[in-house]
């Protein structure tokens, strides 16, 4: 794999991100604040999904297994 092409591809992706989010017209300190807030929101969404989605899947499994009459070894 050509590392130059990979670097150019990531550079192109970053450029597309700047154009789509209008970061290209921001000053450096504004861009830094925008990226920090966006990264924080993304991290909170990933953490929340990691913590709560398995719980909701387990509860949904227990609910539907009781409706269908299937006793799951997972549920207590």
From TrEMBL:
InterPro entries: Ser_palmitoyltrfase_ssu-like
Keywords per UniProt: Endoplasmic reticulum, Lipid metabolism, Membrane, Sphingolipid metabolism, Transmembrane, Transmembrane helix
Segments passing through the bilayer: 35-57
Molecular-function annotations in GO: serine C-palmitoyltransferase activity
Nucleus found in the keyword field: no
Pathway assigned to this chain's UniProt record: Sphingolipid metabolism; Lipid metabolism; sphingolipid metabolism
Record's bilayer topology term: Multi-pass membrane protein
Main location: endoplasmic reticulum
Gene Ontology biological-process entries: ceramide biosynthetic process; endoplasmic reticulum organization
Cell location: Endoplasmic reticulum membrane
Record-level GO cellular component terms: endoplasmic reticulum membrane; serine palmitoyltransferase complex
Family as reported in the entry's similarity comment: Belongs to the SPTSS family. SPTSSB subfamily.
Subunit field text: Component of the serine palmitoyltransferase (SPT) complex, which is composed of SPTLC1, SPTLC2 or SPTLC3 and SPTSSA or SPTSSB. The heterodimer consisting of SPTLC1 and SPTLC2/SPTLC3 forms the catalytic core of the enzyme, while SPTSSA or SPTSSB subunits determine substrate specificity. SPT also interacts with ORMDL proteins, especially ORMDL3, which negatively regulate SPT activity in the presence of ceramides.
Function: Component of the serine palmitoyltransferase multisubunit enzyme (SPT) that catalyzes the initial and rate-limiting step in sphingolipid biosynthesis by condensing L-serine and activated acyl-CoA (most commonly palmitoyl-CoA) to form long-chain bases. The SPT complex is composed of SPTLC1, SPTLC2 or SPTLC3 and SPTSSA or SPTSSB. Within this complex, the heterodimer consisting of SPTLC1 and SPTLC2/SPTLC3 forms the catalytic core. Within the SPT complex, SPTSSB stimulates the catalytic activity and plays a role in substrate specificity.
Listed name of the protein: Serine palmitoyltransferase small subunit B
């Amino acid at each position: 794999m050509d590392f130059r092409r990979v670097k150019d591809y990531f550079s192109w992706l970053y450029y597309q991100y700047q154009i789509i989010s209008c970061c290209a017209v921001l000053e450096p300190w504004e861009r830094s604040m925008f990226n920090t807030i966006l990264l924080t929101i993304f991290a909170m969404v990933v953490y929340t999904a990691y913590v709560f989605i398995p719980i909701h899947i387990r509860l949904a499994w227990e609910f539907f297994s009781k409706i269908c009459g299937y006793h799951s070894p997972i549920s207590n």
